[in-house]
Write a structure and sequence with these properties.
alpha/beta, elongated, Alpha/beta knot
């Protein structure tokens, strides 16, 4: 799976790329993430990528550098493939479709490669959305200064569903919001010690009776 990230701040991804499951997936070439600094596609040497919005306050990302960045990525992919091809474009936006587990599962199956636009300031120019964007995704109903964090949430949620990323093909099958749990939140989980500050692990979970354990799990979905 490969993500092409358009951002003003590629350094925002440094820790994300070098830790935990994402780092391990990249080491195994199960996941590729390429960063493109939007300023490098600015229309002049000033490196400015934003301008004042018409009819409202604030700054908006200009369509010129964004279109150049998207076209550059699409043309590079088409050239490498030896044909005209186009990969989907995702825009992280507070007004987009709310991301949930079902959407993650659908996108993970559909997407092998995509472009993610990380907005900043107020928004991006609507014409970029109209011309280029295939999916407009929100991670919840609030505003962020920059959408690099939202892009990381999306990448993590999609990548972990790909084969071999988690190490076991069944790791994500029985967890919160999975089909197996009827899209409900997961039951409580415990580990050693069996008694922690007077709070004991439920006896059923250490009974060895798998039928009763499975019943307990179903009865304790949150």
């Amino acid at each position: 799976m490969k993500f092409h990230i358009i951002t003003i701040f590629p350094e925002a991804f440094t820790s994300f790329l070098e830790t935990s499951i994402i780092w391990k997936a990249r080491e195994k070439w199960l996941l590729e993430i390429e960063l493109y600094k939007l300023n490098e596609f600015a229309k002049d040497s000033s490196w400015h990528v934003d301008d004042k919005a018409f009819g409202m306050h604030g700054q908006v990302l200009s369509p010129i550098p964004l279109s150049r960045a998207i076209d550059h990525i699409q043309d590079s992919i088409a050239g490498n493939a030896g044909m005209r091809s186009r990969i989907p474009v995702i825009y992280m936006s507070p007004s987009g479709q709310l991301l949930n587990q079902e959407t993650c599962e659908t996108l993970s199956k559909k997407l092998d490669e995509c472009i993610i636009i990380c907005g900043h300031y107020e928004w991006i120019d609507q014409r970029i959305i109209d011309i280029y964007v295939d999916y407009e995704i929100s991670i919840w109903e609030y505003i962020l200064t920059g959408w690099e964090i939202a892009a990381q949430v999306l990448i993590d949620s999609l990548a972990r569903l790909k084969p071999d990323v988690l190490g076991s093909s069944i790791s994500h099958e029985e967890e919160s919001f999975s089909v197996k749990l009827d899209r409900q939140k997961e039951y409580p989980v415990y580990t050693r010690p069996q008694d922690f500050r007077g709070h004991r692990v439920p006896d059923i979970l250490i009974s060895g009776d798998h039928k009763k354990i499975n019943t307990w799990k179903k009865d304790n979905l949150r």
